[in-house]
Amino acid sequence: MATRASNLQLTSLRDRFDSVRALTRNIAAPLSDADATLQPSPDASPAKWHLAHTSWFFETFVLRDHVAGYRPHDERWAYLFNSYYDGEGARHPRAKRGMLSRPSLGEILDYRSHVEEAVLNAFLLLPAPALDLLELGLHHEQQHQELMLTDLLATFAENPLGIALWPRQEAGPDAAESMGCARFAGGTVEIGHRGLGFAFDCETPRHQVLLRPFELADRAVTNGEWIRFIEAGGYQKPGHWTADGWEWVKRCDIRAPLYWDGGSDGDYVRYGLDGLHPVDPAEPVAHVSWYEADAFARWAGARLPTEAEWEAAAAGCDPLEGNQLDSAAAVRPRPAHGQARLKQMFGDVWEWTSSPFSPYPGFRAAEGTVGEYNGKFMVNQFVLRGGSCATPRGHARASYRNFFYPHQRWQFCGLRLARDI
Amino acid sequence: MATRASNLQLTSLRDRFDSVRALTRNIAAPLSDADATLQPSPDASPAKWHLAHTSWFFETFVLRDHVAGYRPHDERWAYLFNSYYDGEGARHPRAKRGMLSRPSLGEILDYRSHVEEAVLNAFLLLPAPALDLLELGLHHEQQHQELMLTDLLATFAENPLGIALWPRQEAGPDAAESMGCARFAGGTVEIGHRGLGFAFDCETPRHQVLLRPFELADRAVTNGEWIRFIEAGGYQKPGHWTADGWEWVKRCDIRAPLYWDGGSDGDYVRYGLDGLHPVDPAEPVAHVSWYEADAFARWAGARLPTEAEWEAAAAGCDPLEGNQLDSAAAVRPRPAHGQARLKQMFGDVWEWTSSPFSPYPGFRAAEGTVGEYNGKFMVNQFVLRGGSCATPRGHARASYRNFFYPHQRWQFCGLRLARDI
Amino acid sequence: MATRASNLQLTSLRDRFDSVRALTRNIAAPLSDADATLQPSPDASPAKWHLAHTSWFFETFVLRDHVAGYRPHDERWAYLFNSYYDGEGARHPRAKRGMLSRPSLGEILDYRSHVEEAVLNAFLLLPAPALDLLELGLHHEQQHQELMLTDLLATFAENPLGIALWPRQEAGPDAAESMGCARFAGGTVEIGHRGLGFAFDCETPRHQVLLRPFELADRAVTNGEWIRFIEAGGYQKPGHWTADGWEWVKRCDIRAPLYWDGGSDGDYVRYGLDGLHPVDPAEPVAHVSWYEADAFARWAGARLPTEAEWEAAAAGCDPLEGNQLDSAAAVRPRPAHGQARLKQMFGDVWEWTSSPFSPYPGFRAAEGTVGEYNGKFMVNQFVLRGGSCATPRGHARASYRNFFYPHQRWQFCGLRLARDI
Amino acid sequence: MATRASNLQLTSLRDRFDSVRALTRNIAAPLSDADATLQPSPDASPAKWHLAHTSWFFETFVLRDHVAGYRPHDERWAYLFNSYYDGEGARHPRAKRGMLSRPSLGEILDYRSHVEEAVLNAFLLLPAPALDLLELGLHHEQQHQELMLTDLLATFAENPLGIALWPRQEAGPDAAESMGCARFAGGTVEIGHRGLGFAFDCETPRHQVLLRPFELADRAVTNGEWIRFIEAGGYQKPGHWTADGWEWVKRCDIRAPLYWDGGSDGDYVRYGLDGLHPVDPAEPVAHVSWYEADAFARWAGARLPTEAEWEAAAAGCDPLEGNQLDSAAAVRPRPAHGQARLKQMFGDVWEWTSSPFSPYPGFRAAEGTVGEYNGKFMVNQFVLRGGSCATPRGHARASYRNFFYPHQRWQFCGLRLARDI
C-alpha cells in the first residue's frame, strides 16, 4: 500500500475500521467501570487500558503525525496509554496499569469516539503512509481484542464468585475424533509473508528453509489426553521435562492447566468466560505453557513441530475457517470435527512450536517508533501458530508468528504433536 | 453496658448508629465503582471492602449471632469480607482484595442498607451482649472511616493525573507558632481506660506506671522543621537512625515524607485528598514513619515520648477538640494555634511514641472471635496517640492506643518531641 | 574505672585478657581453614571473621587510638573486619563475609598474636580510657565467643554428613523435675546496672519500675514439654499465635525447634555441636524463636515474664553458677536439678521475655563510635535474659540484656513461664 | 568406539586420562582448603566440588556400572557430588554447594587418587561401553576445568584484596589490528558432528542448512571497541537493546563488562586471575552477556552470526590453534595477530551467536542417566562457539555447542560481528 489506495481499497479499509472498532466496543459491553479497571498481573492489562491504548495508537501515529491541526483529546493521556514505545517518551509503568480508576470507562469510550470521528473526518485526505499506519492500527487493535478477552478471563478468575461474563454457548460434539496424522515430505520450502496483503514485520523476509520428512497430528491435543498425562504422573516425573520446565513446575506447584481446579477422581472443572464448568475431554486443551506442551509431547513419544513445519503444513488450509472470534462471546476451544486432512490449524488454540522467536534471515526492523513493534521481543520467547478461538477472524494467516514466554499460559494456547519420519 | 441499657442509652446508640453509618456512606459519595475497587497495597484495602466489611461485622456478630431468623444478605460474602478473624473461617487473601470488581459498589451499598434495616428492625429486642457488640461495631466502623480516607489517599496517589477527591479547604494561619514545651513532674501515674464509656481491650487494665520528670513540646513538628531536617542531611547521615531505620532508608531510597515530591530548592509539593499543592511549612508534618520520627527526634536533640508520658500529659486535654473528622472532606493537618498549654494533642496527626505495642500488665484478650481484635497484633508495632485530622470526632480518647509497624506511613502520622528534665 | 587503675586491677585485667583470648583460640582449635571461612546466613558470621573482628576491636579502639606509633597489622583489614560501626567508615557487606577465603585462618591467628603482643607491650602505659576500652573489648570478645559457637552450629547444620565438632559430653539426669513456681509480691523494684563492675550501656540507668504480683516457673521449659505442644497441634492452630508469628510459621513451614528432625512417632533427633542425637525430653528446649516461645506460653495458659520481672526474680541468684561456657566443648542445655527456689536462671538457655528491647528511661548512648554499641539496635527486637550454655561464665549478670529479632532462633534460646497472681 | 578398542586407542585414552586428570589437579594447586570451598553464586561451584564431581562421574558411570566388586570411596558422597542427574537420585541442592567445608580439599584429592587408581587397575578389562563413558568422562572433566577457572575468577572477584591466583603472563602486541571481514557465499551447508572422534549428543545429527550470503569479522570485538560503545551511551539508550536486555540493564545497573571497575575518563581496570590490571584495549572483550553482545552488534550496524554461519566459516580453521588452555595459569584473551583470513575462531573468547540452543533436526537424547547430559537444557539459552582461553586445547571443535543464559557472563564470552551481504 505504498502508493495511493484505490477507492475500493479505501472503502474496504473504512469498513474494516468501523467493524474492528465496533467489535472492541462490544467486547467491553458487559463490563462495569470496575471490571474494566482491574489488572490481574503485570503481564496483562485492564480492559480500559486496551480500549484507550488502541485509540492512542491511531491518535499518535495517524492523527498527530499526519493530520494537520489535530489536537490530542487529552495531552496527559499519552503518558498513560503508550505501551512500550521508548521512542514515544516516558510512560506509566506497566505493572501499575491497574491503579488507574480515572479516566473512567465512560471517559475512555468518549475518547474512542473522539478518535474515530477524527479519523473518519480525515479519512479521504490521509496520505499513503498514514493509510499504512491505519492498516497497522487495525491489526494492532485485533491483537488487543484477543488480549482483552484473555486478560478479562485472568481478571475474573481471581474472583471467587465464579462469574460468567457471557452466557455459555451451545456444546460441540460429545467426543473427540481419534488422533490421526498427515505426512510431509520435507525438502526446501518457503516460509514468511508472500508480500500480498498485510503482515507484521517479523513475518518477513520470506525465505527458504530445509525440512526433513515429518508427520503432524491432524488435530490438537485434547483435555482428555491431557488428563491421561496427569494421571500417568506427568507433573511428577522430571524425565519428561526440560530442566527449566521442571524448576518451574516445582517452584509454582503446577499440577494442571491454568484455570483448572479439582481433579481428585479426574473430575476437573475449569473457569472460563462462561463461568465454572466441568472440563470437556473432547475439547482441545488450552492454557498450557510451552514447558507443559513440550513435556507432554515428550511423554507422548512425539515432539512439537517447528514453526517452519507448521507453516509448510498450513499452506493448504484456509485461515478464514475454524473456530475464531466473530463477535463478543464466551469463546472456547471446540472439539475437532470434519474430514479435513488437518483440522483446527486455524482457530481453537494457538499451537506452541519448538521454535524460539528469532529474526528471520535478513530481518530489518522498520525505521522509527513503529519499528519497536516486534523486533525487540526476539529473545526468550517461543513462536505459536494458527490463532485461537479468541483471535478475530481474518487476523491470522499461515505466516503469522505469535510469541510468548515459555512459562506463560493465560492465552488460549495448546499444542499439536509432530514426529520425524 | 453489661446490663440492659436504658431508653436514653438506646436512643443515643441508635442515633450514633445512624450518624456513623451515614458518615461512611458520605465518604464514599465521590467514588466511582472503579475508585472504590482499587487496593493500593497489601496494607490497605479498597473503599468497597471497607464499606462491606463494616457491614459484615454487624451482620455476623450482631444479626447472625443474636437475631433469630436472620438470613445473610449473601452467604458467599463472609468469605470475601472477613478481615482477619481466624475464628470465622477461611477468607479471601488480604493482598487480593483489590481484584474484586464484583460485587459492585452499588451492590455493596445495597448490602449496607439491608444490614442497617435489619439492625434497626431488631434494635429494641437486642440483648445486652448484642448491644455491646453494636457499640463495638460503631467504634470499629469509625476506625474504618479513617482507613477509608488514608487508603483512598494512597490509591489516588498512584494516579499521575493528580486528582482532587474533594475540593481544597480554606487555609490556616500563615505561620506556625514557635515551639514551646510543657514540663511534667513524673511520679506514679495511672494510665489505661478508666472504665467509663467504651474502650478497646488493649486499653485495659488501667494500671500505675512510674514516670521521671519530662517535658513535652506544646505542638507537633511542622513541615518547615522537617524541611530543615532534610536540608541538614537528615536522610544521609546514619548517626541519626536506628540500624533498622537506616537499612529501610537505603533500601527504599527514602528522601522525604510520603506523598512529597520535588525538593530541589526546597520547593516541595505534596499530594493530598485535595490534589497537588505546595507543602505548607506551618502545617504539622504527616506521613512519616516511626523510623523517620525517631531519627528526627535524635537529630533535634530530643526523643519521642513514651505512651505513658503522652497519656499522662493528655489528662488535661479535651479529646473532642482539635482538627478531627466531622464530615467527608479533604482533611489535612492544620497549623497549631491557640493559647492552650498543649496544642494538637487530639487531631491533626497521630503522634508516634517510643512505646512498642505490648499488652498492659494483666491484659486478657476477650473470649471468642472478637478477642482477636487487638491482642494478636501486640508484636513488632509501635503505639501512636491522639488521633488525626482523619479520625472521626468522638472516636479518640486519652487512653486510645493506635499501632502501626515502624516503616508504615500512609496514615496521617507525625510526632511531638519530648525530653528528660 | 574512670581513674587510674590499681596494680591489682591491672593484674586482674591482664589475666582476663590472657584467658579470654585463649578461650577464643581454643574454640577455633578443631576448625580447618574452610570450616572457619563459611557463613551460614547473613545473620551469622564465619569463625575467621569473629577471630579477626575481636582483634580489630582492640587494634582500633585501644592500639590505634591510644598507643603512639602503633601501625596496623594490615591497613586493608579494617574494611574487612569492622562490623557495624558507621563512624569507622566503609566496610565489607555483612552478607558477603563468607566469601573471604583470604586472609587464611593461619593469617588471622597471626593477626591475633600480633595484636595481643602489642596490647601486652603497651599494657602498663595505657591511659584510663584505654583500659576502659580494653575492658569493653573483653566483654565484646566474650559475646563473640558465644556467637562463634552458635554460628558454627548453624554452619555445620548445613552439612548433611552430621559432623560432631566436639565429642559428646556425659549425659545429665534421666528426667526433668516437675515444674514448680516461685511467687513474687511485685511493688516498686529497681532494675538496671548498679554501677559496680562492668556493664553495657543499655543496662543503664538503673531505675525504678512498678511490678504487680506474679509467679515464675522454677525452671525452663523442657524438650518433653515442647513435644507435647507439637503433639497438641501447637504449630497448626492460629489461636496460640500472634498474627506475625502465625504468618512466619506458615511462610517458613515451621514445625519444630531449629535443628530438630524426624518426629513421626515423636522420635525427634536434633543436630548439635556433638553431632546428631535423639532429643532428650529432660533438657531445656533451645533454638525456639520469640514467636514460638510466646505461642507456647499462651498454649500453656501462661505468659512470658517481662524483663523487669525476670531481673527482680534473679536478684537472689548467683550469675556465676549454672551450665555456662568454661572451655571449648560441645555445650548443650542440661536438665534442671538441685533444690534452689529458681533453677537455671543463669546458663542453659537464654530466656525470651515479653519485653521489646527499648532504651531505659534516661538512656544516653556513649559519645563516639563505641556509642553505636547497643543503642541503634533498640527497635524490633526482644530482650532475652540469663545467658546460655554457650555464654562464657562471668559474662552474664542479672541486669544483662541480650536481644534478638522475634523470628531468630539460632542462639540457645528457650523460655521460662510466668503468670499473674 | 562401539567395538573393542585397539591397543593404540587404549594407550592414547590412558595417556589422555593421565594428562586430563593432572591438569585438573594443577589448577587446584594454588588453592587453600578455604579457596576450594567457596561458591560465588548458585550458577557456579566450589573448586572442591568440581574436583569431586568429575571423579564421581568416573566412579559412577565407569567403576560402579562396569567394574565388578568396586566399592565406592564413600557411599555418602554420591549425594554430595551428583550435579543434575535426576536418574541418580536425590542430591545436595546446587545453591548449597558452598556450605560444605567437609570433606576437605585433602580428602577430595585422596578421592581423586582412589578413583584414578581404580580406573587404571581396571583399564585393560573395561568393556567397550565403559571405554565410551571413560571418553565422555574426559570431555566432561575438560568442561569442568574451564568452569573451575571461571568459578575461581568469580570467587576471588568477591574478595576486595585483589588477589592474583597466578602471576601475570607476558603481554601481547600493543595494538589490535583493524577489524576486517571475510565473505561467505551461503547456500546449502552441512553442520553438526561428522561422526569421526568424540562429540556431545547435542552436536548431532549432522544436517543441512540453507545460508544466505554473509560476512564475518576477521577477529573478535576488542575492549577498545567496547569502551567506544560505553562512551557513545551504549548502556543508556534503549534503542540498542532487546526489551529483556534493557530490563536487565536497568534492574542490575549494568554499565560495563563483568569484572570491570572505574571508568570515569575511560581508565577502566579489570579483575582477572592475575589480579587487578588496566583494561587492555587491544584484547578481545570478555565477560559480556548475550544481551550486551546483541546490543553492541546492533549499535555497530551489524548482528551476531548464527551458529550455522559460524560453523560453516570455521570449516577452514584448525581447532587446535589459538589461545587455549595448556596449563594452569592466569589465562586471558589476547590481541588478535597473524595473517589468517579469520583470527581467534578458536580460543580467546567464546563467541555468542544469535542462535537459541535448540535440538538439531532429528536429535535424540541418549538412553539412561547420561542422556540428561545436554538435551534437558535446550530452552532459554544461547549457543556460543569456538572456545576460550580457558578451554583446554583439544576440547573444542567446529561443531562444538556451548550454551548459557542470555544474562550470564562469568565465562570468557565475547563476540564477533556478522552482516548480511
What does it look like?
4 copies of one chain form a homotetramer. The first copy, chain A, contains 9 helices and 12 strands. Chain A has helices spanning 7-28, 47-66, 77-81, 105-122, 128-157, 223-231, 243-252, 290-299, 307-313; strands at 181-184, 187-191, 207-211, 214-217, 260-262, 268-272, 275-278, 350-356, 382-385, 402-404, 413-414, 418-420. Chain A is globular. Chains in contact: A-B, A-D, B-C, C-D. At the C-D interface, loops of C face loops of D.
Number of helices of chain A: 9
- What Rg of chain A, in angstroms, do the CA atoms define? 21 Å
CATH topology of the largest domain in chain A: paralog of FGE (formylglycine-generating enzyme)
Low-confidence stretches of chain A: none
Proportion of residues in β-strands of chain A: 5-15%
Overall mean pLDDT of chain A stands at 94
CATH architecture of the largest domain in chain A: Alpha-Beta Complex
CATH superfamily of the largest domain in chain A: paralog of FGE (formylglycine-generating enzyme)
The assigned structural class of chain A equals alpha+beta
Can you write the helix and strand succession of chain A as a string? HHHHHEEEEHHEEEHHEEEEE
InterPro entries (chains A, B, C, D): CTDL_fold (IPR016187), DinB-like (IPR024775), DinB/YfiT-like (IPR034660), EgtB (IPR017806), Sulfatase_Mod_Factor_Kinase (IPR051043), SUMF_dom (IPR005532), SUMF_sf (IPR042095)
Protein name (chains A, B, C, D): Ergothioneine biosynthesis protein EgtB
Domain Sulfatase-modifying factor enzyme-like (chains A, B, C, D): 185-317, 342-419
Pathway (chains A, B, C, D): Amino-acid biosynthesis; ergothioneine biosynthesis
